[in-house]
Amino acid sequence: MTATQDIIASELDTARSLFRDELVEAGLLVPSSVEGLYGRSGEFEDIIDTIDDHVKAAGAAEHGYSAPRFRFPPVFPREAFERTDYIASFPNLTGAINTFDGDNKAHAALLADRSEGKDWDHHLESAGTMLVSAACHPSYSMMTGTLPDEGRLLDIYGYCFRHEPAVDPARMQAFRMHEYVRVGTPDEAIAHRERWVGRGLQVLADLGLEAEAVIANDPFFGRAGRMLAANQRNENLKTELVVKLYGDLDDGTAVVSCNCHRDHFGHTFDIRTADGEPAHSACVGFGMERIALAMLRTHGLDRRRWPASLAVG
After folding, report:
1. Is the N or the C terminus of the chain less surrounded, counting Cβ atoms within 10 Å?
2. What span, in angstroms and rounded, lies between the C-alpha atoms of 125 and 122?
3. What is the CA radius of gyration of the chain?
């Protein structure tokens, strides 16, 4: 990094830290001893509800009321997680659940290590479950087999986990995504993604946010990940809708993600179209907390001063 880039990065870190402190002081977020892990106040949840009303209205306008709703827990089977292949691309973001499965002797050994201030995690075993990394991930295993002629359309909303401890309030470790997922032919998946880019921008505009669509890539891990990221950008498989939370200090924060997965989940979960081909999939994901933060950053922390269409009575 150049000296100028170092200065900008430092100013950006300061701006993020100050915004986080303002949110905590206002009682909107409740901090914990772990960076990026927060409780939410009732007022913050009211903002989330407002956002979700707009997302649901957009879903109804795009799909009518034909998208069945699914709400999965934030934990799902390790076997299904393995089939997403997430661990290959994002091992550093992954959350595995471990638990104690020993006898009294093993418990005594755990307690002995704990009382001596030693690491005791090695006494735990895999619970066979993982934290959900993307809201749509638990849905694919239920579609194994042959899809109906029209494919499948799903409305999914739930908590996600990604291990990214940071002072930036927009980079939470636990957050919610509201997704619309399309599984079917290649043309159906691509059309779904393309239509939602425009509709997602309209949702954000209705919330009083200035956003732009940019070609993007996921943060793939390691040397091979750089190639995957380049391919994803070159093939235009991911479009993010970004809002500048800190003016010209950064390139913007992604608040909505529109993705084409091609036939990745079709292959790994053995999902086939009516003609027997591996199904293609696409999703649009609204980052609920990030949109709420963008609204607070744009309109201020006092909702009574927000635009009349968004303010509380």
Report:
1. C
2. 8
3. 21
With tokens 């991911």, the residue in question is: 238
Instruction: Check: CB of residue 169 under 8 Å from CB of residue 19.
Output: yes
Q: Which residues pair with 183 in a beta bridge?
A: 152, 281
Nearest in space to 155 (alpha carbons), one of 189, 139, 182, 179? 179
CA atoms within 13 A on the CB side of 257: 23
Strand partners, 69: 155
First to last CA, the chain: 48
Tokens of 285: 């994901």
At 162-210, the pLDDT tens digits run 999 999 999 999 999 999 999 999 999 999 999 999 999 999 999 999 9
Instruction: List Cβ neighbours of 88 (8 Å cut-off, separation of 6 or more).
Output: none
- Picking from 40, 71, 43, 42, the residue whose alpha carbon sits closest to that of residue 178 is 71
- Residue of 309, 306, 256, 296 whose CA lies nearest to 19: 296
| Ranges of the chain with pLDDT below 50 | 313
Q: Which of 57, 302, 99 is nearest to 202 (CA)?
A: 57
